[in-house]
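Example record

One chain of 951 residues, shown exactly as stored in the release files.
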Amino acid sequence: MFTNSKLAKSVRLACAFGAASTIGFVAPAAAQEAAADEEAVEKIQVTGSRIRKAEFASNAPIATVGAEQFELTATVNTESLLNTLPQVIPGLDRTSNNPGNGTATVDLRGLGTNRTLVLINGTRAVPTTSGGTVDINSIPTALIKDVEVLTGGASAVYGSDAVAGVVNFILKDDFEGVQAQTSYEVTEEGDASIWNADLTIGGNFADGKGNVVFNMSYTDRDDLFQGDRHFSSYAAFDDGEGGFIPGGSSGVPGTAILNGMFVTFNEDGSARPFVTGGDNNDFYNYAPVNYIQLPQERHQITAIGNYEITDNAEVYGRAMFTDSRVPQQLAATPIFQTATFSLDNNPFLPVATQQQISDAIGDGVDTDGDGIDDTATAFLRRRMIEVGERRSEDSFNSYQFQMGVKGFIEDSSWSYDVYYQTGKVENSSVQLGNINRGRFNQSLLLASEGGNVIVDANGNPSCANPSANGGTVGCAPMNLFGPGNISAQAAEFLRTAVASQALFNQKMFAASLAGDTEGWFELPGGPIGLAFGYENRDEDFEFLPSQDLAAGTIAGFNGAPGLAGGYDVSEWFVEAYLPILEGVEFADLLDLELAYRSADYSTAGSVESYKIAGSWAPVESFRIRAGFNTAVRAPNIGELFAPESEGFPGAADPCSASGVTDNSARVRDLCIATGVPASEVFTNSIDPASGQVRALGGGNPNLKEEEAETLTVGFVYDVTEEFSFSLDYFDIEIEDAVSGAGTNNILNLCYNDPVNGGVGSAYCNAVQRRANGTIDFVRDGSVNAASITLTGWDLIASYNTEMWGGDVSVDYLGTVTDESNFEAFPGAGVIECAGNFGLNCGEPTPEYKHRMTFKYGTDDYRVQLLWRHVGEVNDDDDGTDFSVEKIDGENYFDLSGTYYINDNYRVTAGIDNLFDTEPPLIGDNQEQANTYPATYDVFGRTYYVNFAATF
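Predicted structure tokens for this chain:
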């Protein structure tokens, strides 16, 4: 299969200047070729599975995670391994319950999953969401040969979205034999288990001209609840003195009125003051029933094949299918709603309570003149435990099919590759536990006469409006006053069935030609390598919600209106590799890489990107390298076409007790001017519920592309045959970034920035408050106004030697982040996230992180100790009295080993989090489970075993 020496030359050049489409068809048989080809083949192997060889073959920093790491760590979900790389800031993973959508993502440098391009064998994977994010659950782990992580802009080579870089999953396409393996992991507590089994069958046919690989796998992941761990069994509040107290939500099972009365209700309907402080406060502990590990059931089938139809042509294909079911679960719905309820003669309320409410917040109409108003209106906060927990049942079905032909133009060094691929992802979701807001209001107004509620002979009231109001049963009166008092009939009336379906389709055609100028023009270092290509891609997305979900008339999960949109793009690219000098004094190698791409989008119009990179090796063991890229990201379907929808990001209200950073007269007056009653300014009564604020955002069809400039400068030094290292500086600047200002940032700019904020400013106008002063919503739409700056250093080192009767290796990956800054618009305050975490920055971005492995192996076994360090970070909201100022650095150690029983059987066993390190407790600025569970281990010491049989 392409044992021609022309292939070796073509692949050597392709590896040098980044033509990923060529790398995929290097055959193992090439290693068995004649001596004339051995030099070229050796150079190809530099981009193999070992980080040292892959890294030092490129003019840009590349980290390669090889199959050995997947084996030693018994990886089932790929993101868990990728998140150990220091270049990666964790995206969504198995702990992502809220926020989360059932997918797993990868986020290079923390620049966003939409700025990280995911490839499979050098070609685009099918996105899952309207934002273009790829669910890497759809990539079969058992077939991964390498994962190559290229950081820095790569749009000139791969197109849009490669602003932060690319993650390229290279699959096994030459497997021969049968391999069956199964793995099981479980925590020391005996929970959070994951079981996986897969079968791979592959073989050659037609006298070695063809090969087919078939894989099928099954994954079963158990749930784990926050209540199963002591550090997450309650929602923690900061106590203002560096400690924590039990906290939670003001949406309580007994109903709370935190304006006007500041009370909650007992089971008998009597009212008492709402307790906001101390260990025995009245906040509802929503944590125990929330997932800390999402359950998953996944089926995958993959087939890869190729066949050499002539000496110079090969057809190939790949078909991938995944069915992944990942539910989410949250505590019962908290409804926060201004509502009018029947008061006078209400059988659910004692007369004394009726009088108390009437005196405080009655509506002023007393028809029968008994001193108690007929109705009252209040902002009610109620935890609907009688309706049940909120649960989202998500099913993802995806397939991707690719078919192509590649080969050589006869009697030349030029190769071609033409392929077509199509893919589809279907996400079906059913939500349980939502309630209808209209029916909530309806069930509070009871039938009355002369201002008094009418009851039957048994003292039972009926609804003033008995209709079903869009439901399946008629209205049932709701006793909202006291925990557990909502009847089964009322709960059934309130429930609403919510479902949605999302479809993402991708079609792509690509053709490329690569070769060199050997025989007609050569530089002193050799012939010039060239590649030309054309790509056409069509992507469309449709989101079809049920009526209540689309209208946003539910409480529970977020409302989400329908969405339909798409685009097509045609792209041309050219790349060149210029070996200027080679093998001369003071220039063992001097080369230059050039790339240019032009793309025409049906939405954003024409965009361009280019790359200039080069290296100089004065001697064989030392090489200086540098690269400058322009990168682009065209706005995705969601950013362009999404109608306004709601979300609930973490945010602090500067006018409330928990969010105030400046209690000056200026801010007090501004709070009053923007709708906060004077008596409520800087009080707990207007604290955002659960530390979250409702945000409204939508698409903008006038968006244009983001533009980025990326610079990398560094060197590679082979100190000895055993020890090598590289050091690279990176600088990424993104302009016209598509973004909202950020909910918390908008609030800060409105109230705490005297220059850009204030009454009448765009930021204060974006904040809408209710009559009681609480925030109703913050409008945060997408515009091309933000800028992002990221700078830092990557250090990669590798030491390999023979000692103690075996092979010893030490591999190190370290990243220092100097700057990670976000500016919502020119002149706005810069949010600095290097070394920070919290409401503005989100996931912790340490200034220093590393991944280091120590390995020892013989013919019979291998042992690895993995050391992962997450550096210290500071709270980006540390100006308040209620925040954790710093999270100390954390160290995690994982021990694993593989024993080869014989040529056919092997067993791998390991312990993750060897020293049972607990996650840091954060409190108010948590993401989930009082911490950031994708960054810090929440499972504790975990054991795993994998058994594999190969024939």
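Notes: The two ends are 23 Å apart (CA to CA).
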